[in-house]
């Protein structure tokens, strides 16, 4: 049916030049006469080629991952430094290419008039590209949007109350209206806090000051951030952006961010105008809520928590744990210490008087996830501490003897 | 609860109208219950149900059970079809317009493909057009001339100082345009009058081009054709129809050699050729209708208009000779048939003559008047041609661009320390770029330890031995001694290397390129994007 409604398009080579970065070659410019008859299906080849490349890379990566021997190395093999030291080093890192990054930011200033023009025309500016764009957008707002009110939403925080944001925007718009009009408005204003979302939207979309070209600009840093990823949040933002007196500038960093929006949101409500503005500025605030991979390595974490828990236990319990730890360190290849052996060793040292006492200690350890049980080859129940040997060694001195 | 609400309902003279936006999104059982309820109360509360259907016309039959359908007295309403809407938009925006703004052939083809392959909605097409306009007005300093065209002050040189541009600057900009330079090398006197001549010619040729496209569209209207496709053909400055318009001359050639070349191309397929053939083959009554439409469109081109008028008169005479004085089309057809039967030979011959004349007319039209705007000097003033800019604004390819930013960072940062690195990974590169490049060597999961070791070795190295051999690395370092001393002096500490590693992984996570280890694989990071 498509071929019937839309007659054949120009030759494949012509189309390819739009969907790839390649320059149109002189040969492709000639207009072969028979080309018009090609069915519409073939024309997609240029696009499909690019898509195939993506999927080809995916399958190659999967193959490579599967075929090569998986390295058995653990994070602990890196021997990560102490967390405090790591964080201090992270805070004191010298940024690279400072001069070039600064000159890149300066170069974007030449585009500020164009951005302002597009914003006034009614488009929503969507900034993307590698690097934090927070400073860039806020610099643009503070230099080129001085005659408008601006509200900033930081999408990179963990949770955002959009109702409060809307109340803030409504109040700002109200203030702007009051400032433009000399006389006070006739209708009594209900406080914005108590109004519903639909009321607030109606107010921001209102017909007041129609001939006036003023608006409230909303800056959303990381509209794809964790606090705004819910569909409801995005729909609400879209409704806000579609109000006549609201303009929106947003930045995105996640490669899958476009999946947040449907057609109506992209073309009608947000009306996105994409700007590629890589800054290579470090993601300082955006990365605050992400854990450092080496700081929370399991060994260091577990050994620390184990030490804290053990210190809260009775001295006898701690000594029983010490017996078990020493056994595990001296017998690295067995599945664990058989419970009978543990009982015998504990009795010898007068740590427990009966099996019941030992069992109560073991239950306590299990509750705190300090030990686990499994069966060995002989069918005996064994207990073991789920920590690496080096962790155990670090732990032992912390236990009271 | 609904029933009680209905009981309280005040019954006015007007029926209640209930609008359901998207019928298929509703739960079928609830909807049918609702319809049942409405039908039970229909005497007390007359209701009209308006339901939007997103898919096919028989969707209600698929969604609702038969007992609910029985209770509905359905009427179908459809909006104008998409192709019709598109044609209307294109006609209004480009062909039948008062503003001279237009788009280049490349832009038209791009917008058509965007509409067909990416997003088949008229809204997105209009949005693309809006963006093209906005970009044109913000980048072309001479775009104020469009306003000058609108004000119809053709006898005066544009007064650029009203728009914030000095007269000299305007002339300089205009005569520096590539289209002017390629067509008017010989003209030495560059003055306001020369500009005025050029602009007048531009306006005239564009107007006649629009007229031809409109006429061709009238000829081919009944055949389910998209005006945008026709426009793309007509806009092509390198197409077979444009070869007549030598970019070096503003006067249209009319020698025999070009017309022969033109006729030889006739056998090719294409909408314009189709339109031409159709005109030749039309029966008399349809030809008359077409000629009358052309009469309206060609008012501004007297030379052509008179020929069309003459043809209309001769066709009308044919009609009269066929013993039909009635203006009604249906009757005309019948009497046409009678006339044909009665005066078969004579009428046939006259019809053939009329067709021949019409065919010559359309040849003339296409040959002499369909000059693509890109073949005319000064066309940059009103023609938008930056397809790349338009595409970038419309379609942001996040996945590809972010990865390209990381891989080809040097094109953006332009630092001297990382220039001409080839395939080597230099320690001066941004940490995230180093990490991203290293990750490419692994499969879909990356062992954290191995990745760290590779990162560390890159950071601590002064020269990485590249695949292309040591000689290249020697070329890259103009003062190897200096570099060695600096690297020895500022050897980063283990803590700082680990901190940089952690931060780079955080950045890759923010961009969604990797995922943190999970419980199943605590020592591996998963790659989520695999290069472009």
TrEMBL record, chain A:
Entry annotated with the keyword Nucleus: yes
InterPro entries, alphabetized: ORC2, RecA-like_ORC2, WHD_ORC2
GO cellular component labels: nuclear origin of replication recognition complex
Domain Origin recognition complex subunit 2 RecA-like: 101-277
A single GO molecular function term of this UniProt record: DNA replication origin binding
Compartments (UniProt record): Nucleus
Every Origin recognition complex subunit 2 winged-helix domain range: 331-390
Any GO BP: DNA replication
Keywords: DNA replication, Nucleus
Signal peptide: none
PANTHER family from the UniProt entry: ORIGIN RECOGNITION COMPLEX SUBUNIT 2 (PTHR14052)
Family: Belongs to the ORC2 family.
Function of the protein: Component of the origin recognition complex (ORC) that binds origins of replication. DNA-binding is ATP-dependent. ORC is required to assemble the pre-replication complex necessary to initiate DNA replication.
Subunit structure: Component of the origin recognition complex (ORC).
Name used for this protein in its record: Origin recognition complex subunit 2
Organism of provenance: Linum tenue
TrEMBL record, chain B:
All residue ranges annotated as the Origin recognition complex subunit 3 winged helix C-terminal domain in the record: 399-530
Ranges of residues in domain Origin recognition complex subunit 3 N-terminal: 1-143
One Gene Ontology molecular-function label: DNA replication origin binding
Entry's Gene Ontology cellular component terms: DNA replication preinitiation complex; nuclear origin of replication recognition complex; nuclear pre-replicative complex
Keywords, in A-Z order: DNA replication, DNA-binding, Nucleus
Places the protein is found: Nucleus
BP-aspect Gene Ontology terms: DNA replication initiation
Region (Disordered): 466-493
Signal peptide start-end: none
Keyword ATP-binding: no
Bias-annotated ranges (Basic residues): 466-484
Listed transmembrane segments: none
Family: Belongs to the ORC3 family.
The protein, known as: Origin recognition complex subunit 3
